[in-house]
Amino acid sequence: QVQLVESGGGLVQPGGSLRLSCAASGFTFERYTMRWYRQPPGKERELVAFITGAGASTNYADSVKGRFTISRDNAKNTVYLQMNSLKPEDTAVYSCNAYAAIFNRQYWGQGTQVTVSS
Question: 30's torsion region: left (phi>0), alpha (psi -120 to 50) or beta?
């Protein structure tokens, strides 16, 4: 059974930091590109960052470059999103996604709420 379980969300003040985790199981984790998406209230979901299977390549949305860092630990089947210098506009439900073009498959987590407010 495939599972992606996010954790680490919560309420933080502007300028603060949070570290999101996404624990994966039920598939060959290291063969999947892992992506973090977010959906702000009343807006469409957007891609925040992704990291390839071996961790050799990462990419970020312009809105988070220099503030967010995606990483993965294939030994723990976990992907992380370190979020620094948080802004109110970062408020959203953050979801992790596993994607493998070679298998034409993708999986989603249930999401975790991040609220940036004073």
Answer: alpha
Take residue 65 and report the two structure tokens written for it: 């470059």
Select from 3, 1, 7 the least CA-distant residue to 111.
Answer: 7
In terms of Cβ atoms closer than 10 Å to its own Cβ (0-12, 13-18, 19+), residue 65 is exposed
d(CA 38, CA 62): 14
Q: What is the pLDDT of residue 43?
A: 96
Contact 34, 59 (CB under 8 A): no
pLDDT tens string 101-114:
888 999 999 999 99
Query: How far apart are alpha carbons 71 and 66 in whole angstroms?
Result: 14
| Residue indicated by tokens 């298998």 | 103
Look up residue 3 and give its two tokens: 């599972």
Number of C-beta neighbours around residue 12 at 10 A: 18
Q: What is the pLDDT of residues 11-38, one digit of tens each?
A: 999 999 999 999 999 999 999 999 999 9
Identify whether the C-beta of residue 80 lies closer than 8 Å to the C-beta of residue 18: no
